[in-house]
Amino acid sequence: MQVITGDGTKPGLLINRNYALLWLGQTVSAFGDFVFNTTLVVWIAQELARGQSWSPIAVSAVMIAASVPILLLGPIAGVFVDRWDKRRTMMRMDGASAALVALLLLVSGALPLPGLSGGVPVGWTLGAIYAVVLLVNSCAVFFRPASLVTLGDIVPEEHRPRAAGMTQASFSLAMLVGPPIAAPMVLVFGSEWALMIDAASFVVSLIAVWAIRVPVHVSPKAETPLFLRELREGLRFFRRSRLLTTLAISGVIVMLGAGSLNALDIFFVTRNLHAPAELYGVLGAAQGAGMILGAVVASVIAQRVGLTRMIWGVLLVVGVLIGVYARMDSFVPGVVVIFVLGLTLPGLNIAIDPLILLATPREFVGRVSATLEPLVTAASIVGTALGGFLYGTVLRDFHAMAFGISFGPLDTIFLWVAALCVLGGVYAMLNLRLERPAPPSEPEEAGAAATAA
């Protein structure tokens, strides 16, 4: 593969012009996404399903609709992302997402609909919300692998950890700022304003991507592409790469536990930390603040520590911190532990994407990224369901004493989560090795070369 043009700009604070545009678009889009997600939860819980017994199910259905595209479209999307022009793919997905979110304005009451003077029925509104969430997240399944390939095209290898750190920091800032703005906005001004903000964020991202000038890659003339063959080639490469399979297995192990943590933390706050439910959001803010600082620190030390060491090191530390958190019995120390946990988590995201780019030929990055994400997402969903099941049934009245220490249902589950994180870290430590694939002439040869490395 021959590179025709490139970006000769010297690295600055945001590395170069092209990355600055990509970072700007993704930052604005992430802020819009957090506003959008919070808006839907508040809109459904406080307006559409207020006082209804099925309100929790209606809110949970939003999360399910967001996860389904990752599970069903992941590997399929990867084939087409590897085949299509990455910049155009990102622009099309941003444009489609903006249009889809704007369509929700029709059922929000912002625009009058002929023949529906009494407003849109609640069932139709909920159906429209779920459909838009499903389709917007389907667009994201195509956008994310394309943006990862683009990152590899426009950022030199030695600056990719810093680029990942900047992206992680802006994502954490959006997570910290977006929800507190969205919730009162919906309650005071109505859902339509938050919907317009999210639609506008996709437009800003589209414009930023349009302004990027990526190197032109010319591939040797190939046979007519066949979907199933390309899918098999991508899966074969993934399976033969020790680094990629180690990332997948470690991620699945960890997310089987992390899913339980996410589902049960609200109960842990009220029952183990003895705090009112209103303070639950403080934990999220503490973690977000820690992640902003942690992203900056991790991007600085990533090259010194090494990307593979950073992954298993972070997993081990996270396991220890969750174990400490499980034994907390008051709110303030719990907030401190969650803040420190937030400091460590960005190291994972900062290391994983550069490792994927190092271990994967450009023509396979889309399929590799879109294979890894569904595996981790599926593990998270299973972990969430398993945690809820254990807490609601098997361990509901569990109490035990060991070495003079009392154990209840929630802290026992959280200690199991900690053990899974440590197990994932140990597995990564024993098996994670950096691979650099040789330029492949045939897909099977590429997989063999990566495995041999």
Task: Describe this protein's structure.
With 453 residues, the chain is mostly helical. It folds into 2 domains: 11-216, Growth Hormone, Chain: A; 226-453, Growth Hormone, Chain: A (Up-down Bundle), CATH 1.20.1250.20. The protein is built from 16 helices and 4 strands. The strands form 2 sheets. It has a two-stranded antiparallel ribbon. It has a two-stranded antiparallel sheet with strand order 3-4. β3 (400-402) and β4 (405-407) form a beta hairpin. α8 runs parallel beside α16 and α10 runs parallel beside α12 (331-344). Residues 1-9 and 439-453 have low confidence and may be disordered.
CATH architecture classification name of the largest domain: Up-down Bundle
Return the CATH class of the largest domain: Mainly Alpha
The percent of residues in helical segments reads over 70%
CATH superfamily of the largest domain: MFS general substrate transporter like domains
Task: Indicate the structural class.
Answer: mainly alpha
How many discrete domains? Answer: 2
Number of helical stretches of at least 4 residues: 16
| Total DSSP E strands | 4
Mean pLDDT reading: 82
SSE sequence, one letter per element = EHHHHHHHEHHHHHHHEEHH
CATH T-level topology of the largest domain: Growth Hormone, Chain: A
Q: Could you describe the largest sheet, including whether it forms a barrel?
A: 2 strands, antiparallel
Strand content: under 5%
